[in-house]
Amino acid sequence: MYGPAYDDAWQWLQSQASQDVIDFGIDAFAQRGTPPTEPSLPIPPLAPSHLDLLSITGTLAPQIDIAPWLHGIERPSADVSIVWRADLDAASPEDWGEIVGLVPPLTAEALGLPIHVARAWLQGADTEDVADIATASEANASASGDRRALRWDGEQGALVTAREIRPGDTLVVPASFGGCDEMGWNPASAAPVRDLAEGVRAQAGRPPRYRLHPALTDDAARLEAARRWATLLLRARNESEFDVEVLEAELDAAEAELLALLAPDGPVVLEPYPDGKGVVALRIGPEFGQTLNTGVPVGLEEHLEGVGRWAHELAMALGDDAELLAVAGRKHDVGKSVTAFQNLLHGSPIHGRPLAKSGLTGTAAHAAWRNAGLPRGFRHEAASVTLTRCEAPLLRHLIGTHHGHGRPWFPLCDDPDMPGSDLGTIDGGWLEQFFALRSEVRPWRLAWLEALLRAADARRSIEEQSA
Prior knowledge:
By secondary structure, the chain is α+β, with helices and mostly antiparallel strands. It has 18 helices and 12 strands. The two termini are 50 Å apart.
């Protein structure tokens, strides 16, 4: 709340209190008068041009501030979000972007502050309590300080000074900066702030990322194993002369030791901290994790038929194009039949029936991912578009976008001979198809059909894991 809203609310509460006590029970509250409300701010119209821009998603999408549609325009104060991380060394800001990229911040980690308060704190000025100063122009801009923050845009970070902070920024700073305690914002506190990354990821249901760093754990055995593996890997990356066979053997042994100590739930990829002091173990992402870490092998044919059935039932119940969605469901994962992808799912180049999901878990799944030979950037849904050879643009769109890519970009595949790799190129035809469909079908309709297919895929997966 901003402006007079605090005072108005407090005065109303005082008027309703009896001996400094207010009954907040539903029945009691219903008998009270209307409480004061904060004045509504005007909401801008959502024009077709806005929808066109918002329909483009992914890392290369235009960055649009949606706050005016959520909170109204001409908001009297501009906010930023602060995230504290214990594994950031205040003396090495050049490494912050790479470190934060290993475990990107989530909203629940952040503390929202008016922009002038965040600026004053970074500048080392005397910071008043967060109150009703209406605009950033009232901040003390004359204070001098050289503490910087990492502006995180969702994909990468950039170091900024206090003067360079913009409304809506997510700023990541070292926990050693202080500024927050167990009760919340406390700019006078110099004690390190608690790092919440792992707990927030768990609460949000995100795949866990295990950070082994001296600032986060005192487990000597794990830290030493992490340091040894990270040192070896960084040596392999940075040095030009070494015995390849010897170093690879040492790396494999160090990795096996580290994985044994971690005992991760599912396949992981290990990434070193830039200074070699630790390791982040990342669960394999959606392309591999959803197909590997299930414990229940699922045949490709039965999965496709099941998704087609669910898509047809959902569309019929909702009065939509049942045949279109049923066909999309029966074809959406055909790209998983690619040999390298089947090597991944089976954990071996020798396999029988095609799988949609693997029964491998743990270290076996991790080894399968390492040895499958899938090129970086390969997407099975793009391969599905190519292998099914369908010509109908809307059907192609649904098959290609069922994991969120292709609106309108697919990642570039390192191997141009893999099916679907052409969809990631400018001249592959996918961009033209996307914009033509957006004009003809419109963004709301496209999003609705995509959601139905994804819901059918999810329902079938629940059936498969519950069988």
